[in-house]
């Protein structure tokens, strides 16, 4: 499976492509960061991100796209830019019919390091080790994008099994569901 991870951001949008499957060695196909000028209007910056993501999708042809789920931060302006860049990544993937998975930062950290509270240096070190790289990808946005792809490769099979089990247990869209059940 080839997964493109996207660490969304309006100024720096990390991108990483990883090949692999559960229980097999992972291989980095590409890593980089899309940058947009802070002085440009938001709409123009989003167009630059869209063009960059489209180019990566054309070049690396992933089977799925994993995007970091936007979480609440204290700076609402930062959250808005991150959410907008995230939406662009999801839109680009959806246009191509690619599955999109959203993973929280703590989920990614736990998958890659074993701790949902790992810091950026720990994530970078584990990405370096798992992908057998000479040095951690820089900046941290690049390492985070690779970590997202790794997380998805490792978690996708379990997620698929859960989805199939739910579909078998509750066939049809009109089937009653227990209260509190999450539909994926």
How would you explain this protein's 3D organization?
- The chain has five helices and five strands, in the order βββαβαβααα.
- 36% of the residues are buried.
- It has a single domain (2-169), classed as Nucleotidyltransferase, domain 5.
- Helices cover 48% and strands 17% of the residues.
- A five-stranded mixed beta sheet has the order 3-2-1-4-5.
- The chain is globular and about 50 Å long.
- The protein has 184 residues and is α/β, with parallel strands linked by helices.
- It has helices at 42-60, 76-95, 105-113, 120-130, 140-169, and strands at residues 2-7, 12-19, 27-35, 64-68, 100-103.
- The protein starts with a strand and ends in a 15-residue tail after the last helix.
Keywords:
184 residues, Nucleotidyltransferase, domain 5, 5 helices
- What kind of sheet is the major sheet? 5 strands, mixed
Q: What is the arithmetic mean of pLDDT? A: 90
Question: In the CATH hierarchy, what is the class?
Answer: Alpha Beta
Write down the domain tally: 1
Write down the overall geometry: globular
Helix content: 40-55%
E-strand count: 5
Strand content: 15-25%
Overall structural class, as computed from helix and strand content, comes to alpha/beta
Q: What is the number of helices? A: 5
| Low-confidence runs of at least 5 consecutive residues | none
Known CATH architecture: 2-Layer Sandwich
Please trace the helix and strand order, writing H or E for each element: EEEHEHEHHH
End-to-end Cα distance, whole Å, is: 21 Å
The strands making up the biggest β-sheet line up spatially as 3-2-1-4-5
Quote the CATH topology. Nucleotidyltransferase, domain 5
From the alpha-carbon coordinates, what is the Rg to the nearest angstrom?
Answer: 17 Å
The CATH H-level superfamily is Ribonuclease H-like superfamily/Ribonuclease H
EC number: 3.1.21.10
Binding site for Mg(2+) 2: 68
Catalytic activity: Endonucleolytic cleavage at a junction such as a reciprocal single-stranded crossover between two homologous DNA duplexes (Holliday junction)
Binding site for Mg(2+) 1: 7, 141
